[in-house]
Design brief:
Elements lengths: L9 E5 L11 H9 L2 E4 L2 H11 L6 E4 L5 H13 L3 E5 L12 H9 L3 E5 L4 H9 L6 E6 L4 H10 L6 E6 L4 H12 L4 E6 L7 E6 H8 L7 E5 L7 H18 L4 H12 L3 H17 L9
Helix pairs in contact: 3-4, 6-7, 7-8, 9-10, 9-11, 10-11
Length: 298
């Protein structure tokens, strides 16, 4: 190991190619050669990567994937505390982004271990850049639930989000997912399906969700990232008191105080704070007068 108990080691999160091996960051080879421990999501894929980069791993290689992440994290943290330089790589892209890594980073930070990164390819950012959709504000939603009801419910939660949304999806579920998106967001919402990014058969299919759902019905292959346009801003007239109250409730449930939630909703809608406040008070009074209302403002 390259340190001591008095000099904690370093956790290095390294990006790996999402397709074309030539996209590997230049520092990756050096880190693979010098790390005391290389924690890899798939050791066989790591072997193929090192062969392609013509680099010899200098330290110990251990597997670190979803199935053993919880059990192996303490072992790696102890190595870090003991002075080791631990390199974490996943099958593709940056660790922690829908891949193993978060638990190890959190545990390392808890023990005051230095954490750094070798920036590299990212399917999320690559798809965003290629989508042709706004990228000034976006939200990465990862993989959706597999069950149809849970998937639709999750989508409806963000149906009014104005940020561009990014999802990962498996090829055998993409047709159902796009159909659910069309139902939750509306078939006219613009989107882009990005598959096999940086690989030989890279394809970016752009269109409305309705069009993309029809296109995917015949089957789509490869690793897929879906980028969906954010919800259009509603005019103040379109919002109405019920929508204003709903937005305040969402913010309150997320931890905001009511005063701040009302101010934020008013600013979003371009309305006077008093108008939003009056809508909240009216809803509160209506809830008190109707015992069947189980989720009234209190």
């Amino acid at each position: 190991m390259t340190g001591s108990a008095d000099s904690p080691g370093t956790l290095v999160l390294a990006g790996t190619p999402i397709g074309d091996v030539a996209d590997a960051p230049p520092r990756l080879a050096a880190e693979l050669a010098s790390a005391d421990v290389v924690a890899a999501e798939d050791t066989r894929r790591l072997r193929r990567l090192t062969q392609a980069l013509d680099v010899q791993i200098g330290g110990r290689v251990v597997s670190y994937f979803e199935g053993n992440e919880s059990a192996r994290t303490p072992e790696l943290v102890e190595a870090l505390v003991g002075g080791a330089r631990v390199l974490l790589v996943t099958d593709a892209g940056m660790p922690s982004v829908s891949d193993p890594g978060y638990r190890l980073v959190a545990a390392a930070v808890e023990r005051d271990v230095r954490v750094t990164a070798v920036p590299g390819p990212s399917a999320v950012l690559t798809a965003l850049a290629l989508s042709g959709l706004p990228v000034d504000r976006f939200c990465f939603e990862g993989f959706l639930p597999r069950k149809a009801g849970e998937r639709l419910s999750r989508l409806k939660e963000v149906a009014e989000d104005r940020r561009t949304l990014v999802y990962f999806e498996a090829p055998h579920r993409i047709d159902d997912t796009l159909a659910a998106m069309a139902e939750a967001f509306g078939g006219e919402r613009r989107a882009a399906v990005c598959r096999e990014l940086t690989k030989t058969y890279e394809e970016v299919k752009r269109g409305s969700l309705g069009e993309l759902a029809a296109w995917a019905a015949d089957g789509v292959r490869g690793e897929i990232t879906v980028v969906v346009e954010g919800a259009p801003e509603k005019s103040a007239a379109e919002l109405g008191p019920d929508e204003l109250v709903r937005r305040v409730r969402v913010r309150e449930e997320a931890g905001e105080r009511r005063k701040e939630a009302i101010a934020a909703v008013a600013a979003e809608a371009g309305l006077p704070k008093r108008e939003v406040f009056d809508a909240v008070v009216a809803a509160k009074n209506a809830d008190r007068g109707d015992p069947s209302k189980s989720k009234g403002l209190s």
